[in-house]
Amino acid sequence: MFQNSDKLLCHMAAKCLALLLYFQLREKITLSNSWVAFCQKNLSEYPENEKVVYCLWTLTVIIKEIFKDTCSQKTEILKQFLTPFDTIFQVFYNSLFSLHFKSCQDTSKIINSMICSLELLELLIASRIHLKLHFTCQRILFLKPSCVLDVITWPVEAFVKRKFIIFIKKCLLWKVGEDLCWGSGPALMPPDQYLDVDMLALADAVLQAVDLGLLKTLSVRGKPPCFGGDEVQPACECVHGPDHVILRAASLLIIKSLEIKFQSCASANEIKVDLQSFMSELLTFLKPHLQPSLQSHNPCEWISRVFIEQDDDMLEAAKASLGIYLKLTRQCKTTEGLTQEKEMWNHHTHKYGYNPHCIFLFLLKNIGFDSSVLLDFLISSETCFLEYFVRYLKLLQKDGASFFTICKYFDVTELKDSINICGCSSSLVQDRSSNQTELSLWAALGSHRNAHASVPWASDASGPLNQPVMSKEPHITLQAAAGLSPPQASQSLVDYDSSDDSEVEVTDQHSTNSKQTSLQQEAKKKFQDTVRTGTDEKELSMEPQSRPLVPEQSNINIPFSVDCDISKVGISYRTLKCFQELQGAIYRLQKKNLFPYNATALLKLLKHTESIYNESMNSL
């Protein structure tokens, strides 16, 4: 059947043969010696022998069936199957990836063999993760990683590069084989003795490839989806963006490889040099594909911008950057007493996009400070949010001052952007009233100006780092000036014991909305009376909020002045409010035994954020 010209028939024949062979393995029947010899011959004689693809199909299906099986003897079955092929796989791997692609006449056959071998290689690594086996063929990628990385630089189709770069990303994240089992996912085995060495070898190979220009060989331009064909009609103008799958995979390759490498690095200077080199190259690579450009924004925003459509990858990148920060922090403790060194350190974390506080705040802004989203992340087993969140909350306990300082910079930046945007929408009348209004706004934020030198993005790129750029435009939307988030649908996390509880909450919510609307209308009227510039009334309009973001006793109904407490409506307050809502939701679920794990330690960390916030407010 393998000699048939019908490829589909050959593929079905290989699958039927694989099921028969698996049945023999399952029933402990000795495999056919002729079939084993056939596969060994074809694999060892590649590329002269063109029947290797049929062997790869058969081998792949057999290993997949072993993973799908629910029996308890999977490890023994796979061990029996891999034993005669361990050495042959290594020979085939070396032959396949040592080919000179440009000199080959029929490149389609090579690409077909590579795609099939990549799937088999993934299964072998997955068996190492989820089954307690230690064959050399399972480590072949880590022993010779440059062979696979070189394929990405070959002049092959974009989909081939995409498959290989996603495969390497899975290997670095140790997530190979998560989708192989039906039903519940396979359990992770304890790491073997070679894991740390192998991961470090792969990370070093990735960074070396990036240093040699790997990112320049990637095809990032996205292709428009075409229903019923692969061509766009000439009359149809299609504007399509970059391939975000490639952007995410390439970003994760670099940030995860840096984290793995730095875990075994003892020199702070070496870490800083590598971090500066590779993060500069990554940000330069991302810059043309992110609009608006990162140049006019905080470089730490790159994670939220690149991974906004992929939660699990975004949290992996955030966790890796946090690991890098913590490692570098421990290495730099000897210079804590030097003010100049601390300023340079703060500047470095922002310039190269790995400041953990900025990254976390951008994450919260992306989800609208919605605690229900964080709760979903904590309950889900599909992301690493629990590990990341616990590590960040522990950092927040030790580094609360830096967090609140960065929150102030966020507030100032949002206010400055609002001034600039609103100022461009209408002509301005520079009278004393407008100038006094602006000065009072900046006076209210006077404590935010002190340390701009440590956060380069907080000021305009053309001005000195220690001078905030204050626009002369007096037109400000009240919502932006108050630091309020855009209107968002409130998602309640109350556990209802009966429908009556639901009705009570709906009534309370309507009452809250009406109070908030009246407060907003009063604030709007007084703000308009203060700023008499003839601005269109639409600029000062405010949508009713689904829930109050500031306490009723705050002075939101008073126009902004020196006495206005901006800290209670800024991003630090919204963050604390989100933490409080999350803490309450977790407590209610755990009290009813509905939370999937013991969250006592997490609740203590969340509770501690209140004392950090109170200490910060008392120090103002």
Automatic annotation (TrEMBL):
Region (Disordered): 483-552
Keyword Nucleus: no
Signal peptide span: 1-18
Segments of skewed composition (Acidic residues): 497-506
Keyword Signal: yes
Residue intervals of the Protein Lines N-terminal domain: 58-407
Record key words, sorted: Signal
Coiled coil: none
Biased composition annotated in UniProt, kind: Basic and acidic residues: 522-541
Domain Protein Lines C-terminal residues, every copy: 575-611
Compositional bias (Polar residues): 509-521
Domain of life of the native organism: Eukaryota
InterPro entries hit by this protein: Lines_C (IPR029415), LINES_N (IPR032794), Protein_Lines (IPR024875)
Record-given protein name: Protein Lines homolog 1 isoform X3
